[in-house]
Amino acid sequence: MNGVSVHPSFDYVEPNNDIAMLTLSSPIDLTKPCARPLCFDPKFQLTPGQLCKTAGWDLDFGVSTPYILKSATVAIYLGTDCNSYAPSTVHLTSPTKQICTLKPEDGIDICIVGGGGPLFCQHDETKQWSLVGVMAYSHTCLETRMANVFTNSLVYASWIEHEMQRDL
Asked: DSSP labels for the chain?
């Protein structure tokens, strides 16, 4: 890795503006089965209740190999709607800059750990997957019906584009 650029207004205590850009020292080999590109469309429109996906390391407490890369389908809740669906489980520090997710009622709950994991949604028309968020914080793995909070990357599109143009 060549560098890290943390958002200039990042506040670790709250946490607000919880987003950073990494500059890699070499390209990622996209021919490998473990790496896939993901679009970033700043114009993507999120809707409450929309089903999207997240991916990360699943901590399975009954397995000797503790970390398994998995994905999960989650429902999107924007702003203060999160508190209606998951009362007392999450505190959005910046409701306009954060996305709250919950597993759908009929969905499978997996324990995704590790901040920085992607939240991605599929365009209705193009069927392309687009990055919409980056995991800021999540519930503890043994709790049920708990919300996860993602930084809404769409809100930071101009900062992301600026950082991509910089020479880190």
From this structure: --EEEE-TT-BTTTTBS--EEEE-SS---TTSTT----B--TT----TT-EEEEEEEEE-TTSSS-EEEEEEEEEEEETTHHHHHSTTT---SSTTTEEEEE--TTSPP--EE-TT-EEEEE-TTT--EEEEEEEEE---TT-SS--EEEEEGGGGHHHHHHHHHS--
The verdict on pTM exceeding 0.70 is: yes
pLDDT digits (tens, 9 = 90+) for 54-113: 887 766 555 555 566 778 888 998 877 776 666 556 677 788 899 988 876 666 555 666
pLDDT digits (tens, 9 = 90+) for 112-159: 666 788 999 999 999 999 999 998 877 656 555 677 889 999 999 999
| Token pair of 131 as six digits | 């990055």
At the topology level of CATH, where does 38-158 sit?
Thrombin, subunit H (2.40.10)
Residues 6+ apart with CB under 8 A from 133: 99, 118, 119, 150, 151, 152, 153, 154
